[in-house]
Amino acid sequence: MNIRILGCSGSIARGCRTTSFLVDDDVLIDAGTGVGDLTLDELARIDHILLSHSHLDHVLGVPLLADSVMRRRQGRPPILVHALPETLQVLRQHLFNDQLWPDFTRLPSEQQPVLQLQPLAIGQTLTLGAARREIEVLPAAHAVPACGYAVQAPSGQSWVYTGDTGPNPALWQALQGRRVAQLVIEIAFAEADRAVAADARHHCPSTLAEELRHLPDGAQVLLTHIKPGEMETVQAELAERLPGLTLRALAAGQVLQLD
Ligand SMILES: [Zn+2]
Ligand SMILES: [Zn+2]
Q1: Separation between Cα atoms, residue 213 and residue 193, nearest integer Å
Q2: How many angstroms is it from 107 CA to the middle of ligand 1?
């Protein structure tokens, strides 16, 4: 199983793209600005988009992708956009409202639209894509309703993405008994912005260090969502708090391989 990191930054700047991960070549997890690095053919192969929550840095690729591939996907089933009902409601009301963007859930025709919104629930397991990947919906604790995902590799090990989240005891409970190969966990802010992080329900080094006490044995930690310009500070502050743990930050363009 391949997971291509299209974007893993907390915001934009040259070389920084927001969250998007491509599982195999037909399942997209979050649709941040990293989606724009895919070719038109690669975009047209995506059959499923899983969204973690409604924030713009995770969803803005959905309306643009729909526009790009609408003609190419004619005659094919709609791209299914899977998310919590609250997230889908935000997309309907504020994005696909024929004002901010055309309603691609009714285009090119109401009978055969390019997008279809598909609600999911925390704890649910979806089986998606040509490779029939099992993907479990995990709880997240963010400023808006949010979730994370655990994708099962062929060996039975999991690749886990926390989504945007602050301290989240329900996540560690959900991961109990699961063999986690890689944990992609968010950290948005440096310690100087601890109060902002708490308000926005994101991690900063001290909350992440506390949280990683629950890390499942053998799991490799990969950091995501660090704000542009904060990478060195965040990594140094984490190394100080977690001297025994190797923490790598994801990089756009990287391909993770799990057996
Ligand atoms: Zn967010
Ligand atoms: Zn975000």
Answers
A1: 22
A2: 28
Print the domain residue range for 182.
2-257
Closest CA to 97 of 123, 63, 47: 63
What is the distance in A from the centroid of ligand 2 to the CA of 164?
A: 6
Nearest ligand for residue 188 CA: 2
From ligand 2's centre to the CA of 117, what distance in Å?
21
> Whole-prediction pTM value?
0.98
CATH number, domain with residue 144:
3.60.15.10
| 110 C-alpha to ligand 1 centroid (Å) | 31
CA of 154 to the centre of ligand 1 (A): 30
Q: Is residue 202 predicted with pLDDT exceeding 90? A: yes
Whether the per-residue pLDDT at 246 is higher than 90: the answer is: no
- How many domains are contained in the chain? 1
